[in-house]
Specification:
The complex is a heterodimer. Chain A has 25 helices and 32 strands. By secondary structure, chain A is of the alpha+beta class. In chain A, the strands form 8 sheets. Chain A has a 7-stranded mixed beta sheet with strand order 8-10-6-18-15-16-17. In chain A, strands 2-1-5-3-4 form a 5-stranded mixed beta sheet, with helices on one face. In chain A, a hairpin with a 2-residue loop joins strand 1 and strand 2. In chain A, helix 19 runs parallel beside helix 20. The N and C termini of chain A lie far apart (about 65 Å). Chain B has a single domain, classed as DsrC protein, C-terminal domain (Arc Repressor Mutant, subunit A, Orthogonal Bundle), CATH 1.10.10. In chain B, about 45% of the residues lie in helices and about 15% in strands. Chain B has 6 helices and 4 strands; from the N terminus they run E-E-E-H-H-H-H-H-H-E. The radius of gyration of chain B is 15 Å and the shape is globular. Classes of the chains: A alpha+beta, B alpha+beta. At the A-B interface, strand 12, helix 12, helix 15, strand 24 and strand 27 of A face strand 1, helix 3 and helix 6 of B.
Chain lengths: ~900, ~130
């Protein structure tokens, strides 16, 4: 042990510390300064733990405390508070540079390290200073803009008050700062690992090292005797169904007999500290019978292939999806032009920065005790129900913590199962904070697809028919893979009028990481094939790709792939708006291309369905004694901006200031069921339910002539009213034909990628991404742009570099997480065609970008080098290989 | 069909009951809980093998409909026990199909597995 004297956030301190202690642990564990985050297992890869030491931005996970004698340390807590924020914190909020907020404290501290030395940094200087800070939601562009804005504040050129929208601007269509952003900027919101619970035990999980195995025995006698260990839990200790799967019961909390994939959870050790739990978990001896691994769909489909799921009810082809519209074979065989190609997309990780944390405890005694789970859910009611059945405990309450990223991954139950079962078994509070490597092993991914595509067109360039056969590799667990397949089908025609379609898809189990909900959820894969084929056809018939898209856009009155007649189709308007931007980009590319560095321009479109058959959202409102309004509903907001959406709609509809709108969205005991925060549905569904709830309240007030809460109470009326939004006119799809009414609404858009390709190295550099998007009436433009531009960075990673390889992708470096160095300028044009049934004319926006960005980049690469790369990611090796074939 | 095939789907269906075109999901749950009426309940209960509806059965159905209508969410087991003053075993035995396929389905609540409810499909074995 050593004594260290340092100044921390301006206050002189003396600490007696172990020589191995790193600064992040001193801050978070010893001092509960949890604004400093960690994502990368203390490898210095993420920058979330950045603090200032002696004026320099430092990754606190790499800094030993004993080396800080006499140091001056500033953490996010020392910078500012929500009531008295630092100008950099103000700038991040006002620039819309905060979504989930998990990377934000580190970003802000890195920015401070830069701005303290240089108040007017260039973009390159900002990129250099933040080269070790990762962001997944917001995208790097708005973070760069935030730092530039902070520079203007610090130079005295403008002030936060001058940048804030005025109260007179109204509520709708205005980029008001998001209600929770300043708390995130100040590091005061609580993510799962930040929540302080006295006496909480820590869990660690024993995971299978084999790709496929049978568990023969588990010996934890040695582990039980290790320091700090409270106990070991196996499947036999779980009293319920032990299944946390959303749909079919193939995903246990802890495996009983089979461990179908590398990293399958086999036992959980609970101890006084995380380190003790992990040490004991390493001492648990598991005897396995290693079973053959079915690594690919081709292997799974081969005659005599072993079954991935030993349950006889689950064959290797776990689901077939079909869609038939018209007569595609006849149309294709009689088409003047046909293009045919095979495409593939890779397995990718949604890559939330926060580890998959959950904590659980028993509130009360005996059979009446309530099992309280605090975690990363985006559907607290469904997940409370799943945990209740899985653990066999009837009384379960789920409270959503702040979550560091979502992107679909939080549709499934993960760490909550372990924490809840352990809290129940040991009757003690238990937290489970897995490592990044474990978080990667225990979560769903984006399914890899292989697709055979045929597209036909007549002599005039009108599309005649489309055929696609595809195989989606499921991995070892079903998760919501069925839904992904159906969504691929239901949006198969993208933005276009495809009069004849034949589509058949198979979802195939393998012993690999398993797919699930992933931003876009199905259409990103199939739209890559469609938009690539559309470009191929345009090239084949020598028609401009934009013109070809305009010619084949769907129009109101025509039908989508599912035969659903549409009453609006704003895609054509997006293409019209794109025209001059596209022409300019084409000219620039032509002027600047050369043999070594080839410039290219690529387009892709997307029309993305929102609101499915039978979808329901409930939101209630309560008039408060001060005549403010509390909004209740399980509208999880892991970063997308539902806080702003609910607040601005409520303030607008009630005619009150936003400051008088309060949100209660996190606690299953308190809120009605607003459904998943997924599928881009919350604005459309829960925004709509909120409008209905406020209408009910206002009707009640009008009925008795009440103007205030006091009037309403005096008249004997309730103060709380429910809004219910159900899409009764969306009647669903017949899965034997793929025909029916699939969606309540659509968001439309087109994206334009400008790239340069280095023909010597094969490197693709994105120069700019331009988006024209029409999400209906816009509630908060900055939030919409944030979704589009943040998604573009994610889509670029999908297009060019990311690939999850089970057993090899273990951290952010091996996963090739996109960094600020790869970020690129973006321009977003917002169009607003009001949607009849959306709240105030709005629809959703969250996933649109992930459907169009990667095909736009792929088309741009083709435009640059004249060779089409049909397999994602478009790595330098693939580019060089393609150039060799030219 | 190869040895690896094995799954088909149940489709949502509309049935005319007591003069109403009621939309059910593949497992027979109401897609629109507002379509439920006492008359439809009685028809469905009869189909489920309940010759007469007891006061306890009717009370349990009314409790969960009231809970769902007021709270905007399906009751968990804990709420069922408190609200009906019955144990889970008693409730399970009270309806053919138990709590999920009996009580919840006959009361017109959507399938609690929201994901299935939303997309209107279900998987069954061949």
């Amino acid at each position: 042990m050593k004594k260290v004297t340092m100044k921390l956030n301006g206050i002189p301190n003396k600490f007696i510390v172990d020589e191995k202690l790193v600064l992040i642990d001193l801050l978070r564990k010893n001092l509960s300064l949890t604004g400093t985050k960690q994502s990368c297992d203390r490898k210095g890869q993420c920058g979330a733990c950045t603090v200032i030491v002696n004026g320099e931005a430092v990754r606190s996970c790499l800094k030993k405390v004993v080396d800080l004698e006499g140091a001056d340390v500033i953490t996010i807590e020392g910078l500012g508070t929500p009531n008295n924020p630092h100008l950099i914190q103000e700038a991040f909020v006002l620039a819309g540079a905060i979504q989930c907020g998990y990377c934000t404290p580190g970003m802000i501290m890195a920015a401070k390290g830069l701005l303290d030395k240089n108040k007017d940094p260039s973009v390159d200087a900002i990129k250099k200073a933040l080269r070790r800070n990762l962001c997944r939601c917001t995208g790097y562009t708005s973070i760069i803009e935030a730092i530039q804005l902070a520079g203007r504040f610090l130079r005295g050129e403008t002030t936060p008050d001058q940048m804030r929208p005025s109260a007179a601007a109204g509520q709708i269509g205005v980029s008001h700062p998001r209600p929770w952003s300043m708390m995130k900027a100040c590091g005061v919101v609580k993510y799962g690992d930040d929540i302080i619970i006295p006496g909480v035990l820590e869990a660690a999980v024993v995971r299978s090292p084999h790709f496929n195995a049978r568990i023969k025995s588990i010996d934890y006698s040695e582990a039980e005797q290790m320091p700090g260990v409270v106990g070991v839990m196996t499947a036999a200790d779980i009293q319920g169904t032990n299944s946390v799967a959303v749909v079919v019961p193939d995903e246990p909390i802890l495996c009983a007999e089979f461990a179908a994939v590398l990293g399958s959870p086999v036992a959980a050790v609970v101890a006084l500290t995380r380190e003790e739990a992990r040490a004991a978990a390493a001492a648990v001896k598991v005897e396995y019978e290693v079973l053959p691994r079915v690594a690919t769909a081709a292997e799974a489909l081969a005659e005599g292939a072993p079954k991935v799921n030993p349950d006889p009810d689950f064959p290797n082809i776990v689901y077939n999806a079909v869609l038939y519209k018209g007569d595609a074979e006849k149309a294709l065989s009689s088409s003047a032009h046909v293009v045919e190609e095979k495409f593939s997309t890779q397995l990718v990780h949604q890559a939330c920065l926060e580890p998959e944390v959950a904590v659980a405890y028993m509130d009360g005694e005996g059979e009446d005790a309530q099992l309280v789970v605090i975690g990363r859910s985006v559907a607290v009611h469904l997940h409370a129900s799943i945990i209740s059945v899985a653990t066999g405990w009837d009384n379960v309450r789920y409270i959503e913590a702040f979550a560091g990223g979502q992107f679909g991954i939080k549709t499934d139950v993960t760490s909550e199962g372990i924490a809840a079962a352990a809290a129940l078994h040991f009757k003690r509070p238990v937290r489970y904070t897995p490592s990044l490597e474990e978080s990667m092993l225990m979560t769903t991914k984006r399914h890899p697809y292989s697709m055979d595509v045929r597209l036909g067109a007549d002599a005039t360039g009108k599309i005649t028919g489309y055929g696609i056969g595809f195989i989606a590799e499921k991995g070892a667990h079903a998760s919501v893979g069925f839904v992904i397949m159906d969504r691929s089908m239901d949006m198969l025609s993208g933005a276009y009028n495809l009069p004849n379609i034949k589509a058949e898809g198979k979802l195939v189990y393998t012993n690999d990481a398993w797919g699930g909900s992933a931003r876009g959820a199905g259409p990103p894969q199939t739209n890559f094939a469609l938009e690539s084929a559309v470009d191929m056809m345009a090239a084949k018939i020598n028609m401009d790709p934009l013109e070809f898209r305009m010619k084949n856009s769907l129009h109101p009155g025509e039908t989508t792939c599912t035969g659903q007649a549409v009453d609006e189709w704003a895609y054509l308007g997006c293409l019209e708006a794109m025209k001059p931007l596209y022409a300019k980009a084409c000219k620039e590319a032509k002027d600047k291309t050369n043999e070594a560095i080839r410039r290219g321009v690529g387009l892709a479109g997307a029309s993305f369905g929102i609101g499915t058959a039978g979808d329901i959202s409930y939101v209630s409102v309560e008039l408060d004694p001060d005549d403010g309004l509390t909004v209740y509903g399980s509208v999880a907001d892991p970063g997308e901006g539902n806080d702003a959406m609910l607040t601005q709609i409520a303030a607008h509809c009630m005619g009150i200031p936003r400051e008088k709108v309060r949100l209660s969205t996190r606690d299953s005991e308190l809120v009605p069921d607003a459904g998943f925060s997924a599928s881009s549905r919350q604005t459309y569904m829960s925004g709509g339910a909120l409008v209905y709830a406020v209408e009910a309240l206002k009707d009640a007030m009008k009925e008795v002539g009440a103007k205030t809460h006091a009037d309403l109470v005096k008249a004997g009326k309730p103060t709380r009213y429910m809004g219910r939004n159900q899409l009764n006119d969306v009647t669903g799809v017949d899965r034997e034909t793929g025909q029916g009414k699939a969606w309540g609404s659509y968001v439309h858009g087109a994206q334009l990628a400008e790239v340069e390709v280095d023909t010597k190295t094969g490197e693709v550099k994105i120069l700019k991404m331009t988006t024209v998007v029409d999400p209906g009436r816009i509630i908060n433009p900055q939030a919409v742009i944030g979704q589009v531009e943040g998604g573009a960075d994610m889509g670029a990673g999908y297009a060019l570099r990311e690939q999850f390889v089970l057993g090899k992708s273990k951290d952010w470096v091996t996963y090739k997480f996109p960094t600020i160095a790869m970020s690129f300028p973006k321009e977003t044009v917002l169009l607003e065609t009001p949607r009849d049934k959306g709240p105030l004319g709005a629809t959703g926006i969250g996933e649109f970008t992930l459907v169009a960005t990667h095909p736009a980049i792929a088309n741009a690469v083709y435009n640059a080098i004249g060779v089409r790369i049909c397999d994602l990611p478009i790595t330098p090796e693939r580019v060089l290989s393609a150039l060799g074939k030219k | 069909m190869s040895e690896h095939e094995g799954r088909t789907i149940k489709r949502p269906q509309t049935r005319k009951i007591a003069g109403v075109d009621v939309l059910f999901d593949g497992e027979g749950f109401f897609i629109n809980p507002l379509q439920w009426t006492e008359e439809i309940f009685e028809v469905l209960a009869h189909e489920a093998g309940m010759e007469e509806i007891s006061d306890q059965q009717r009370m349990a159905v009314h409790f969960i409909r009231k809970f769902y209508g007021e709270q905007g969410k399906s009751p968990l087991n804990h709420h069922l026990k408190v609200g009906t003053h019955m144990s889970m075993a008693e409730l399970e035995a009270l309806f053919p199909g138990g709590i999920k396929y009996g009580l919840r389905r006959l009361a017109g609540l959507p399938d609690p597995k929201g994901c299935r409810k939303v997309i209107g499909w279900n998987v069954k074995n061949d």
